[in-house]
Amino acid sequence: MVRKRWFLVFCIVIFLMGSFFPRAAHSRILEVTITVEGLACPFCAYGIEKKLKRVEGVRSIDIEMNRGVVVLAAEKDRSVNIGQIPGAVKDSGFSLGRMKVRVTGIARLEDGKFILQYGGPDELFFVGEMKTDRKRQFSEYIENGKAVETEGIIQEEPEGSWTLRPESLKGVSP
Amino acid sequence: MSRLAVITAVMLSVFLTTGGALAHEPIFGLGPHTIFKGGFGLEMEFEGEKASGGGEVEREYALTSEIIYGITADLSATLAIPYILERSSINESSGSGDVSVRTKYRFWRRDGIGVQDAAAVILGVKLPTGDDDKTPRLGSGSTDYLLALAVARESLKWYYFGDVRYRLNTEGGGGLRAGNGVFADLAIGIRTRRVEYLRPDLVVIAELNFESRDRNEFFGVDVADSGGTRLFLSPSFFFTYRNWALKGGIQFPVDQDLNGNQPESDYRFSLAVETHL
Questions:
Q1: In terms of Cα–Cα distance, which of B7, B129, B116 is closest to B58?
Q2: Do A43 and B243 touch (CB under 8 A)?
Q3: Pairing state of beta strands A28-37 and B221-222?
Q4: CATH number for the domain including B163?
Q5: Does residue B11 register a pLDDT over 70?
Q6: How far does B196 lie from chain A, in Å, by closest CA?
Q7: How many domains in chain B?
Q8: pTM
Q9: Average confidence score pLDDT of chain A
Q10: Residues 6+ apart with CB under 8 A from A143
Q11: Contact residues, chain A, for B106 at CB < 8 Å
Q12: Nearest CA of chain A to the CA of B240: how many Å?
């Protein structure tokens, strides 16, 4: 009887943890949309398909040739490795324009900087300039520990870190 | 020195200078396009020429296998192995022709949304691997060199190409040295219907191909009935689907100013299938 009660308490604790603390499995880059410059023919686009398919975590690629846009969708429960994208585009003989991501992660504040962590310790975006109301929204997510889904332009900094400029922000249930 | 040998040498030299169009490029000229890094291109090209005059008719056909490799995104190497069928009014021979190797370096590129401007330099060497003992000969017996500069603008609708090539020939079998040549090409292409990726795509091209050849030399002496200039107008096309391309064209002579008494080119053609892996 006592053993059953402890088991019930254990289950409740696990359930509550799951409810209050976002799980790492929900933190990942879901989709990357890139602008590819120089893409002018379907035959040449094969090279970019081939190179981008080798980027870790990519499940599928959709090439919109007339807009010069390529959308990379992530595999289930995996992140797209954004660090491999610039090299893949270069090796296919084109130029990389803008990179935009749709990402879920945990909002944090470190040394006065907003951070969105979407995976392991190194998998994070430093959040760039935001409007006041969006800053407030981001702070609320930090306070209540809710996972965040955002879409925005990303940029690789010279020292190798990534900056994200959120265009939209919403809390997601774990 | 048989006249047949002279004609054959000239016809054989056509193939190094025109073959090896890559992807969306002119069929008879050259373009600056390279293949992606680590990519392989395989091409099978069937090309031919008919020339006639002075009671002689010459036909030459070549089936050329090409392997293209992308060393980097801007540097590619091509190996071309032709199989040649030579047919004159009196005899016929066939077999492996002269193997050629080319490298292309795209030294300049400017990319925009739906447009790419590029320029490349091309170096080629044709090796004396073909049989030059047969009659008609299948190889020139000489090591010949090609230097070319190609520029292009490729967009979603229009294509523009231009190139200049210089062909340096050395003395080959039987003391014959084919005359050096200067070639220049202009081409304009249009995509018939704007399509997305993974849709069949057709581009039609009009090419203007100019060539000027020096006189051949036979043991250091100029051959009177050799050399001259030709201008061709060449409708061509490339049809692609994903990583497969079918491309071809016909060269019609517009003007031929040939030295002495030589057969004039009636037409040339090329049809090729290419895939990228």
A1: B7
A2: yes
A3: unpaired
A4: 2.40.160.40
A5: no
A6: 5
A7: 1
A8: 0.85
A9: 86
A10: none
A11: 93
A12: 6
